[in-house]
Amino acid sequence: FAKAIPENPKQAETKHLCDFIEETLENKKLSFASAPILKLLDQGKVLVFLDGLDEVQSVEKRIFVRDAVKEFVTRYNKNRFVATCRVLSYQPPKEKDEPDLRLTGFPDPKKDFSEFEVAPFTPEKIDLFIEHWYSELTDLNAMTKNEADKKIKNLKTAAQTRSQRFPEPGERL
Q1: What is the pLDDT of residues 19-29, one digit of tens each?
Q2: How far apart are CA 129 and CA 124, in angstroms?
Q3: Closest Cα to residue 48, out of 83, 85, 4?
Q4: 83: which strand partners?
Q5: How many helices (H) and strands (E) does the chain have?
Q6: Dihedral sign of CA atoms 96, 98, 102, 106 in order
């Protein structure tokens, strides 16, 4: 979604995410699914996953994404929503003049997103995740199998090196 945002975005609206969903479906030759999905959203029968909120590069675009998500959630409030991002990127502002990039501040505070932290992966699960991640990228033609194999090897090495430097949660130094 963030990649589809113009350079100097104006005010975020529900329409931006709806247009993105429709365009994505169209690009995947699934445009026939747009109307039923929008109907199910209206009926409150959809579980919406919004992944990687922290991966948006600029603060301006991150604010736009935050606002578009808030508008979308407010409009389709009968549905269930899960948004993911890294813990360190989802913190309250440190300075009073910094924007709050979290999904808070809904008209009804009960609608603010609850925060949960997932349990850490085991080394085996990390390897499996890395393999599946790059397999998906090759399936989407985002990279070649050779490129993916190199990245898999590099990321596994980095992950193993990192896990050797840090204790497991609850472990004493």
Answers
A1: 999 999 999 99
A2: 9
A3: 83
A4: 50
A5: 5, 2
A6: positive
Its pTM stands at: 0.71
> What is the DSSP code (8-state) at residue 94?
S
Per-residue pLDDT tens over the stretch 108-118 = 777 788 888 88
The residues of the chain scoring below 70 in pLDDT are: 163-173
| CA-to-CA separations, 90 to 82, 99, 137, in angstroms, rounded | 14, 12, 26
- Round to whole Å and give the CA distance between 99 and 127: 36
CA 168 to CA 18: how far, in whole Å?
41
Residues 50/72, Cβ–Cβ less than 8 Å: no
- In contact, 13 and 68? CB cutoff 8 Å: yes
3-state secondary structure of 49: strand
pLDDT for the residue numbered 73: 93
